[in-house]
Design brief:
single chain; alpha/beta; seven-stranded parallel sheet; 8 helices; 7 strands
């Protein structure tokens, strides 16, 4: 199976680290021109260097913007000129006592995890429809289906993102544009390492801390380990390609078997 995205331009939000950076590398390796997005020019430049280290021929474009702000989201799209593949990866998460989550914090999670994706989809979908081809991917989470008690606000925001994906897939019906969610399971990133240490003994070495976290807090995982970002990226790159032309409106799982259901 050969995935070729030569001639396509992709925007990956929140792509200076973790899953977003891995997705950017995967898309660049497939030949796409990739917009690397973050709020800090220094971090964006560092991410571009990391992409080019892995893919020397990569065409990586800096997109310094806070896409949770309308005018900056518009700037991000204009910087690239066109967007054939939009990957809404930007997200925030963290453990918090459900009775201590304030209204402002609930709003922040929806602004970042849901409305930023909605806004960017509105901005790119008309041009994709006009050209008869496009891919919109929303990076969701197993927490959308198995709501964690320690971060209800995060889980609910990701549940909303599944609905957003399905709805926009219907809006794009018959146009050649596909819209899907990717349900990422517990994944090994720097942010997740911090999260793990919120829930287990900080004095444990990382490998022991990971095992303890999976045993106590994610025992449903069938692979019994954290997923590597590249494993999420592989699915995103496939769904971004012409090979996935009949997959739309879906919630595609890369969760290590964590969600104990047949669909999705």
């Amino acid at each position: 199976m050969r995935i070729d995205l030569t001639g396509r331009t992709a925007l990956v939000t929140g792509s200076t680290q973790g899953i977003g950076l891995a997705i950017a590398v995967g898309l660049a390796r497939a030949g796409a021109r990739v917009g690397i997005n973050g709020r800090s020019a220094d971090r964006v430049d560092a991410a571009i260097a990391a992409v080019r280290e892995r893919v020397p021929q990569a065409e990586a474009v800096p997109v310094v913007a806070d896409v949770t702000v309308e005018v900056e989201a518009e700037h991000a799209i204009s910087e690239l000129g066109r967007v054939d593949v939009l990957v809404n990866n930007l997200g925030v998460f963290g453990a918090e006592d459900p009775l201590e989550i304030t209204d402002d914090e609930w709003r922040r999670y929806f602004e970042v995890n849901v409305l930023a994706a909605v806004r960017l989809t509105r901005l790119v979908l008309p041009a994709m429809t006009d050209q008869g081809w496009g891919r919109i991917l929303n990076v969701a989470s197993d927490s959308a289906i198995v709501i964690p008690a320690e971060m209800i606000h995060y889980g609910v925001s990701k549940t909303a993102l599944l609905g957003v994906s399905r709805g926009f897939a219907k809006a794009a019906a018959g146009t050649g544009v596909t819209v899907n969610s990717v349900i990422a399971g517990p994944t090994h990133t720097g942010g997740v390492e911090d999260f793990v240490y919120q829930l287990v003994d900080r004095d444990l070495p990382w490998e022991e801390a990971q095992r303890e976290f999976m045993r106590r807090h994610r025992p449903q995982s069938l692979i019994q380990r954290l997923i590597e970002p590249e494993e999420i990226a592989n699915m995103v790159v496939y769904l971004s390609s012409p090979l996935a032309s009949a997959t739309t409106g879906g919630a595609v799982r890369v969760d290590g078997g964590y969600v104990d259901s047949i669909l999705p």
